[in-house]
User: Fold this.
Amino acid sequence: MEDLARFLDEAAALLGPRGWTQDPDLVEPWLTDWRGRYHGRTLALASPASTEEVSALVRLCAKHGVAIVPQGGNSGMSGGATPDESGSQLLLSLRRMNSLRKLDAEGRQAVCDAGLILENLHNAAEDAGLRFPLTLGGKGSATIGGLVSTNAGGTQVIRHGSMRSLVLGIEAVLADGSIFDALTPLKKDNRGFDLKQLLIGSEGTLGIVTAATLRLVPALADRIVVWAGVPDLHVARSLLLHCENLVGDSLEGFEVLQATSLHAVLDHLPDARAPLQGEHAWHVLVEVVAQRGDEEGLQERVEAMVASAFEAGLVEDAVLSANEAQARAFWLIRDSIAPAERAKGAAVQHDVSVPVERMPTFVHHAVPLVQAEFPGTHALAFGHLGDGNVHFHVLAPTGMSQREYDSDIGPRVSARVHDLVTEYGGSISAEHGIGRSKRAELERLGDPVSLAMMRRVKKALDPAGILNPGKLVALAQEPASA
Assistant:
């Protein structure tokens, strides 16, 4: 206890009143994950203002053996930024480190602090005539450090890739407090391992990301969003290939959703309107874009793409956005599926991926199988057909609360879905990380060789296990689940 008291005093002196608090009213909002599935306790909330303060704090934690849970916007989906229930871990918030250090319009790069909110980066890039081509529903709270640490994806992965493709350089504090500085990007660098890629997606278990250099792209001059009805996912897959062949890199989004998801959104949003007349089993949202200098003829190219899709029997009906407001309205329907579903009742959500070419077969196989094995449930799928990432959600039987579902058949439903994903050669986490919620499943289904390699890397970089313990991958002395 004397050693802990000394740590608390030294940490408070290091960070000052703006960077350190044990006030329960200030700490409490950050102790529950975004989904409300995990609630923890903490020694204190540390909010350093610079990389140097992070480094000094981590050295202090290493000296006293205090575990650290890094947290960005606390908008993660896997419980990866929530401390455990012991009260012995330190919650480290990067939200005060929210500067855009540099925006190089000519080099199309931005150097961002870890706590910079994604939407603020979008706005700054737009002011410079550029854009950062990754967006998601939580852009108003998600931070750059969190996005890097979880290798976030989104709706533009089909063209621009996930964060792993957009990070040019990285700065991070390691478990001993040393600063790994690789912010300067090089197109060619053969000095051994690409260590920044090791940190991207490591969920704060190997190092605490404090800054990143990100790739920017030219701003869009125009876009057209197509909403189409198709009979099934196999036809949607053929439509994807058709669009890729005709418009190439101008294809920026290709999303699919079932009719049940569309109806849920229409019930949830009072002002929403169905884009098409008539019923269609599946709906496809296609976004085609043009940069400055390429916008002339965009309308004609998209119209030709859709007309030839009709001729090939790939669409039952389709409509093109007439203006930006209608394009936003189409995307609002897609982005509202998750909240509309939550309003209908309890569910277990699965962020999974399979090889792109196998996604239609997987969905058509898994939906009826899960519903048959768990009577009363309703399975639905939506998401990014272009990169094989499907959000596979299973709604609970009518009248069952979320608590009842989570403690009864919910875990068995998830295990069955993950078994099916593994059979199809897929991943149980496509873009939200492993965190706490999927660690036991990763241990159960992951490749033993890959898991052993990850444990060795963790042991080498964080031998005492103080960085985000209980998340992603366990050291030998840790339990398989947290």
